[in-house]
Amino acid sequence: MITKLRLKNFKSWKDSGDIIFKPITVFFGANSSGKSSISQLLLLLKQTLESQDQGNVLHFGDGNSPVNLGTFSDIIYQGNIKNKLEFYLEWWNEEDIEIIKKNGKTEELELDSLGLGVTIGQKNNQNVVLQLKESFLKKAKEIAHISTERNYVGRYDFPDIDPDMARGPGKPSELPNLIKFFQFPPVIKSYFKDTSLFDEYSVSLSNLLSQLYYLGPLREYPKQIYRWSGSTPAHVSYKGESSIDALLSANNFGKQIVSPKYYRTSKPFEEVVSFWLKEMGLIYEFHTKPIRKNGQEYEVLVKVNERGRDVRLTDVGIGISQVIPVIIQTFYAPINSCIIFEQPEIHLHPKAQVGLADLFIDGINSKEKIKGSNQDRDTQFIIETHSEHFLYRLQRRIAEGEVTNDQVALYFIKNESGESVCEALSLDEDGNILNWPDNFFGDSLGEMKEMITAISKKKGKK
Prior knowledge:
Shape: globular
Strand content: 25-35%
Radius of gyration: 25 Å
């Protein structure tokens, strides 16, 4: 789970300050305020990890990647290539990290959080800072800090390195370049006495980024017939085009979700999707049906009301097909996933928009039945939205105790003179926002005032 992010000189962000992430993290703000850039930085790291080109410090994207950011000059603040991109990422560490001490014994470090700080210039000269922290009563204590400074010819060293990892005798100071933005080359094992820490660290970060998923705002239109070959997609894809494949895979391979909404009993995956479509007031019933026995072609059918008949997705409002990928991804993604949703409320009526808040609350509290036991899914949601209805339901659920303000982080992003600014919204235990920003959802009070003024003038003329 991501716990902290800071951006410097990235697109419209000169310095974001520390952005604290919680199980449900929501970004509000006007168009072009810089909201999407926060998610884009995370997706940039993910697609770099997955890129086959190990020589690229960052893979800015192509037609097959979740984001295509152009070149270094396109992503750097104000287009000034003299600036350096900086970011700091901190995440919750799920596994103990093993290190080998100089006496040959293995020691396990129980670390609550790991951190990565990176500075990159146009010529790919970079400084990487690795931080390992343990926390006691929520007060983090840094127990290791390793910095590598890499210049154009590939020299770097470890100024704060642990004595147990000291350089071997007679080894030269020059090493091959780092791989991508954080990985050490394998040859480093011959230079230092113990490099297991680097390996464990790299695995932890790779696991975090590999379990980062994204669903964009522009989603695929529904089809009359869906063809499923029996595949199991990793996710619903960036435009939701693999949603029905994921649904059919989950159905056929017995994926079951346990939700507080239905009394902690497990339900087959398709029933979970149907439950939430009904809970949002969109339909009465939802199911998939093969066109013929043992065939690859399926219909996705819905019943709008109790007395209605089954119809295909193409025969109902577009909002239903647009929210189905959101519901599927919420429960389909693997345990410990972090899911980015951009405008999940698109094409939805306000009544359904409030239901999205309940969906995500249920998502962080749900379990999955695996080998006979119920395991916490521990999913994290990063949401970019314009929906005030979504916010109001979140606030209500905090007041009702269904979710706590410790589980929710809200931010208002604004652009001031071309620079993005991030304002954390302070929530009390009753869901009240204590620092409500000006023009948060536009000037609604101002609109009402002008309407009353217009009515008064009209009556005055009469």
